[in-house]
Write a structure and sequence with these properties.
The protein is mainly beta. The protein is built from 3 helices and 27 strands. It has a single domain, classed as Pectate Lyase C-like (3 Solenoid). 5% of the residues lie in helices and 30% in strands. The longest helix has 7 residues.
Length: 359
Amino acid sequence: MNLIVGTLALAGLLLSACGQRQASPECNNNGCQACAGPVEGFGAGADTLEYDVVVALDGSGQFTSLQEAIESIRAFKPGPRTRVFIKKGIYKEKVIVPTWLTNVVFVGEDVEQTVITWDDHANIKKDGVHKIGTFRSYTLLVQGNDITFENLTIENNAPQLGQAVALHVEGDRVSFFNCRILGNQDTIYTGREQTRNFFDHCYIEGTTDFIFGPSTAWFEACHIHCKRDSYITAASTPEYVAYGYILNRCRVTVADNVRKMALGRPWRAYAHTLFMYCELPEQIAPAGWHNWNDPSREATSRYEEYRNYGPGARPAERVAWSRQLSDKEAAAVTVAKVCGDWNPYATRFLDSAECCQWK
């Protein structure tokens, strides 16, 4: 594979250096010492970056289609990871990163102008007879391990006629930095148990159950935007898995029409979700959590909070079957503890993540 050297004007393009961020006084509890705030540009004068594959709609790269670029990469390629640069454009594709594609990073030129989009929803009948269902409605399906996405948008822009997944992840050690993930119902499906996903400084929007599934997923300093009265998460964590969804230092916002949101409801028994150090708006229901109209779920669901703030953080009014963690319990919930032998910050490409001290 020929090496392509991309000379990029990086102002407003790359992720921020550590010195440009504001530290959070609570950050020490999650394994990241001082990296808070939105991602912005490095500024002019940055060195060139090298990419193995360039995708561009205008024909200035090796491929005009992201799926064609993926198919060009050697299966289980040994050596250093493959670096794919995606130039600005709206890529209307249903994309699959297959199981045999590993150790690849996909980098967008601009988070808002590099868009992967499709418009399937669960009730579409491709053959005129059978509905495709939720799990085939994805825009992007990631099955390979050790895959990273940075600085781009993943969108399902289907009309609101059924579940419509934007991002479906089945691989292990899959990370997203400074990405926008857009949809309505079922925006993100973390679809395989005992796999680990990591989202850092991402914008995620949806209506109902828009983060759902059995995987372990850490959401660090993400912006979670609710578009309709409903539920944010719908975990289905297996009983034998310690961690499901952990939202740390995230900001939850709502559209003008939203009056009542729940932090989550258990898609299956033993669902685990933890919100800690999160900013919660007043539209978060005082009860906080919902049992999916099944009282038996109250005995198994593992719903937790710690030091959330804002008008929606009302621990005294939460359902009795949820928990507020103690200081000792919360201190034990770190990226290192949850992700085990995988350091997701080491997968970041545009920023060395030197401000994030792994511990």
